[in-house]
Structures
1.
Amino acid sequence: MIKYPPQRSIEKLMRLDKIVKYGKRHSFTIQDVCEVLNVAKNTAEHYIKVLRKENQIYIHKYKRTGGSMTNIYKTGDKPDAIKPSPMTRYEYDRRYKNKLTHARSRVKVTIQRDIAAAWIN
């Protein structure tokens, strides 16, 4: 008598296969997996963990998003990218100052003559 795997494991295998196929065309993040498979973030993280354990995907690069790093994955059996070191205090300060100067440059200040106060002279 042949034992078929439960329906859940077949669906899981199909989803894992879908991630691998998606990874052949694009680099992807956990958020992309959530959107493609329409699953929760915890489920997507579990799928990524399973595929990494089987050496089907690897970390292609890291992207700095705000204060944290986001893993960018690709399909294949290559070594993971080297994780960059955290930002130094100087880099944080420089980034903050750049944000301030860009914000100030976008604000247009126009000085208008006050007609009501024009007679005071």
Note: The domain at 7-83 is CATH 1.10.10.10 (Arc Repressor Mutant, subunit A).
2.
Amino acid sequence: MNENNQNAIEKKVAEIDLMEPEPYRSSVTIFTEDLEKTRDFYNFLQGKRDSFERLQLTKYFTPEQAFRIIDMLRCSKRFNFIPEWVEQCDICKKLYDLEKEGGSTECCFDSTVGMIQGLNKEQHHHLFVYVNSFFDDGNINFCGDHKFAWTKSLLIFLKNATERLYPFAVGSTNWTEIESEMNKKP
């Protein structure tokens, strides 16, 4: 996300107008350390008003913008009530519990590049940087619904990258073991 888009989102966050009578403002608790409550707020930011009947936004957000708002609130020292383990799937945009399901390209590559046989530490690092350079921010998050399809694709990608950079290491590597490592729970 470029700086102009980020600034525009931050400006929109500042412009959110809660169209709610004053007595309710202080009594409504929006966040808890619960995935479902965070999902409710995420949906509310997008204009899906299931749980917040008395609240109304003047502007609605895309799934990416809504998660960016949640992420900004989570990272703020002032608003530390959104759990760290909530992540957004880059494929379906659903929120998921990172500690219980899903994964990321970075985690898959980080835990498996070192398993490739015949490479020294510098070559392992070079391969890790090389494969991550193909992704926009060096990381793609995926929920449990997409984990196995993604890890299969990542395994093929990793094998091809290894073959391109270090062909001598492909034959001596146990790719079944690497696939099993990629498919482990986070």
Note: The mean pLDDT is 76.
3.
Amino acid sequence: MDLIGAAGTAVTAADLTVKGWGVLKRWRNGDVRITHPPNRKIVNPGWVDLSGTHDLTGHKKRHGHFWLVSRSRDEYWPKGEIDLKEDKQWHESVHLNDSWGPRESVVLLVHVSEFMHEILTDYKRRAGRTNYDPVRMHPPKTHFSVVQGLILQIPAKP
């Protein structure tokens, strides 16, 4: 086998491994996704409405909780737990700071353990709804796993 063929096989194997891992995580935790707004959407600062879908079919004993957080490096701003409705939809509003850009804001949909859920709930309760200091952490994947990331574009002030 030539070098290019071997590299192609390795890339294909890595791609299948990543896809397989995603299927395994969805099987264990359910399929929860952000569907609106789309990635790289231009939004004004302040409150932004997010919505999505979920399929927890066969997950009678779902492990953990799903949260929305914003992130910059090792700083996290817990936005709130997602309320998974029976119609397989969810809708939440998050506050993305009141300052204009141009800048980007990263919103993560994360799956958290019961332990991390209690930490985020307590922090959110103590911090209030907006303008609070971030949580600085390097969370272990067993307690905090990114399901989906979303980058929102915040324009310069008109």
Note: The mean pLDDT is 82.
4.
Amino acid sequence: MATTETEVAANSQAADAAEQVVKATSRKSKSIIDQVLGLLSSVRFGVTMLILLLICCMIGMLIMQVNVEGFDEYYQKLTPAQRQVYGALGFFDIYKASYFYLLLAVTGLNIVLASIDRFPTAWQYIAKPKLSASPNFIKAQMFNTETMMGMPAKAAAERIHAAWAKDASDRVRQLLGWCLVVQVIANVIVVVIVVKGWGPLWMVYAELGVWLALLAATLLWKLKRWPRRPVRISEENNRITVFAQRNTWNRLGAYVVHVALLTIFIGGFLTNRLGSGGQMEIRPGMRPASTFTTTEMALDGPQVSQASLPFAIECTDLQQKLVRPEGGLDAGNTIDWLSFIRIRDGGKMEDQLVHLNNVGSYRGYRFFQSAFQPMGYARQITVRFEPIAGGEARDVTIGRDDSVDVPGIGRVAFADFYPDFDEKTGENGSGDFNRPVALLQVPGGDGKPRAAMAFSPSLADEIYRRAAEKGGEDQLLVAGNKVILKHFEKVALGHILTIQYDPGRLPFYYGSVLLIMALMSVFLFSHQRMWAVVEQDGKGSKVYFGGNVNRNKPAFEGRFNTLVQSVIGGRSQQ
């Protein structure tokens, strides 16, 4: 039914001759600026730039970069010639090399100029589709056929219009149906994510908005209020043309790809030039900090410096969830490390929780749970006061850097904690919980605060026994009470936060998603156009069918045949 043809030979030869004349004339009239702009906007030049960028990225993958862990060992294994050549060419930090930025800039310029040069032509397909055609035009299309219909030209055109409009309507109905099915599945997934606490509540509202938009679109289509004109009829020169098209927006897919690439380039540039990262030690009781330590690897070794934050970070609490509470703080015995921080930005304060599966963020800065100090500490302690003269013992729980009122004693504060107390030095012997001791601050006999020790039960028996033998037990007592460290919650002395400022992160993500969607739209869809030119022929009419597509020609051939058969059945004249 369908025949594949190029343009008519005579027209093709005339066009070639005219093109040669135009080219000859343009060569004479082009200035140097026009030639440079023509080169910069050419597709071949753009592909060349992309290949050069790809080569640079491959070099960055094959040669270890200076900011990658283990670079020192890698650098020592290289030969002196390799070190000199790679260093001179900037291969050890290629993504910050001046020529890499230049390649990005020139490639971006090529994309912009190519879009400006070719966009008007692509826009004509949308703004001014070819509504009137001739038999010669039909013969020059990719697919064409002709047939006779035993009815007047207007009746034949109306029949073609009705058949093609029904096909377009069926496809819209199928598309809306699939969109609604996908949306139902997406709603279920979003609800599960929010209920489980894996995502914010605004995701539900966003899904609800999309759902309402789809329902509104379906309702408009059902009420025939949908602003669509998939099939149009025009009359000119005693002939009627029926025109139909689909996926017109596909003509603009290449320019969406251009926008996506530019967005990715801008994101990479912002990250390389303005991004920073480092570490900050946090500990409850420390003053709010607005600086963090950065380490930049260079050929002569690491360069340590300080970077400033536009706000301050204060640690309010630390917690460590252990598999076995009686075990140590090692990673094998830890489920999670939790850092409770408070952001102080002028008069504004914001509390955040940073742990292994939750990244904090504020004003473009992100905070990751990185490490912990190996020195053990206590998040809170439970202390028992046992009267030596007999009576009921009292248990009190005191949080880190906190204090409580104890009847008969006064205000008792948690001052410090020693996980492995050395009696000779009065300091820690190690960071493990071998001989835990809590340092308290209690009221003295004269009303002034004094230090007191709370020993673990086993250590307390030994300490108090030796003190009694030497007659110094009273120095350990607090208002006639033995102080026993009954229980404590294990935690590290401090945590290490990794702070990362990546201004190009969001542009890169948005550009990548846009690029994937644009490429899918470009290659999975195509701009399909159909014409039916109807001419009166006696009491009947002669119809010329033609079709064109910008890509995926084999798939369109079947659709072309289907649309023709929907009008005339199996009758056609090749």
Note: Residues 153-195 form the longest helix (43 residues).
